[in-house]
Write a structure and sequence with these properties.
It is built from 17 helices and six strands. It is mainly alpha-helical.
Amino acid sequence: MLFQKLPDDLFLPLSGQNRQIYQVVLLSLADVFFDEDLIDPFVPKDLVRSTIEDTVIRMGIRRWVPEEDDGEEQVELPRSSSEYASRIYRRLVATGWLEEEQRVYRTYVLLSPAISFLLRTLVSISKLEKRSYGGAVLNVLSSLEAAINDPAGRGITLAEAAQTASDFSAHLTDMMLGLRELKINLSQTNNPQEIVRNFFERFVEHILVSDYKTLKTKNNPFRFRRQILSMLRELQFDTYKVELLAKHYQEQYETDYHDAEGRVHQHINRIIRIFESVDQRLATIDDFRYRLEKRVADTVRYMDKTTPGMAARLSRVISEVSRRDGREIPRLDTLDTVGYISERSLRAPVRRRVQAEPRVIKQAEIDPRVLELRRLFKEYKERREVTPDRIEAYLERNLIGRDVIKANEFIIETIEDYICFSYVRHLQSMGKKAKKTIDKYEIRFEEQYVNVADMVECRDFVIQRKR
């Protein structure tokens, strides 16, 4: 499936002995093809050739290994920067990285969509820029708020929030694996200077998040996590907004309603899973970080004890002790010549962050009058709630033993009957939810107005059960 979109020989330049040359050239060409000011994606061939030649001159490339598909005339090493550029350009065209297109008398070079995406990915891998946790969490929060506040117009931002959360989760995994790999590499290195240099170059500059310190403060970006989870759980049970989101997904992705609704629930569940497990994943990352920093701290501590001249001072102390019979240790009057103990030799171990002890949270007692008020309000909402099943039951209760009923024959005894009667005339306005009920009855309106049960004055109508 991959090579249906990519040429078979695409990775040959990056797997041969000249791969370092092609790597530098492709990174330079990425600046040309991905320039923000580039309006036309068709780049003149002269500009591509000159970019390759400038890269050869700037990097001082003077090493070339003949490749398998080189002709007899290319066995010899290139004699100039222009020949280097020509060989590199022809190789990139032959393997599918670059495509040529002739326009009248000029030749233009372009990248196919799949290769353009691949090159952008390789550039991002080479940079490995630090990420911001706060920015990722705020992006998810703002996208969720936009989707919930306007599901019919901006519901697609829910998909963007799910994608941002997935990228955030993948970055956490990459960070943990990067720490593990760095720890293995440091354990295999015996040179203290190499350990310290790798720690700062690979961990501090590449792996460590730009706002890692803020995770240990009150204003850490994960203070919005509970808000995000609360919004998503409310959205899961809000059938009206989920229906609007599904309709918006249906328009954007051009699919049927059931697939769109399933995609909405899939995105909601994905964000919930990611933000519910973030504490455990951060704890694992913190454990890796603690062990890594402890290793580097120990290395720096022992480097302090191997300062220049330490071996000579130790040798003088041992020589002085050997002159005696071993029963008397020479008295040291000064630390300038033989002393090697200092304040920096005292170890200050790295302390782990102590977790707060769990405490019992007592639930506040609620006033019984408030509970009674809530119960009454809940009953009132249930009485006012309108459903197709309730309307159909009201119709059947009035149609007992017959198939046709007029408006003035309806019985209205309670507030529930009044609400159901109000919706009987407007079943079409209830949409898809009342489709089964609509298909069972036929309604026909008359010209005159009638009074129903001395409560409602409305246009007369007749409802007949369909056979």
